[in-house]
Amino acid sequence: MCLKLGGKMPLINVKLIGLLRGLAGKDVFEIEVEGTKKITMLLDELLGKVGREEFRRAVIDPELGSPRPNLLILINGREISSLSGLETTVGESDEVVLVPVSHGG
């Protein structure tokens, strides 16, 4: 177990942009991490913390069971497709940002 001083687990900040912020009710969530976590595990924990079905539907494609294609996931400013995709791991002090992308014509 990896504890910081005072017995607290290290945290990852997850920032929500645009529509996601409104659906979640706030713009930043802290997720505890012991060592590292795959981005899929982090998203599962975030969905549990938010606890709103409309947020889940905005993040996860129900047919694919994975993040929607119009959701950008940034880790320390880099989109996960330029890293290891959904296999990308995050650790203490990493910043994750979820950005919904919408197009218009």
Q: Could you please describe the fold and organization of this structure?
A:
This protein has helices at 19-24, 39-50, 53-59; strands spanning 11-16, 28-32, 36-38, 60-61, 66-67, 71-75, 78-79, 89-91, 95-100. It contains three helices and nine strands, in the order E-H-E-E-H-H-E-E-E-E-E-E. It is of the alpha+beta class and 105 residues long. It has one domain: Roll (Ubiquitin-like (UB roll)). It is 24% helix and 32% strand. The strands form three sheets. A five-stranded mixed beta sheet has the order 2-1-9-6-7. The chain has a two-stranded antiparallel ribbon with strand order 3-8. A two-stranded antiparallel ribbon has the order 4-5. It is globular and about 45 Å long. The mean pLDDT is 91. The termini are far apart.
Q: Total helix count?
A: 3
Using the coordinates shown, work out and report the CATH topology: Ubiquitin-like (UB roll)
Which runs of at least 5 residues are low in confidence (pLDDT < 50)? Answer: none
- Kindly report the spatial arrangement of strands forming the biggest sheet: 2-1-9-6-7
Give the terminus-to-terminus CA distance: 51 Å
Write the H/E string, N to C.
Answer: EHEEHHEEEEEE
Structure summary:
The protein has helices spanning 19-24, 39-50, 53-59; strands spanning 11-16, 28-32, 36-38, 60-61, 66-67, 71-75, 78-79, 89-91, 95-100.
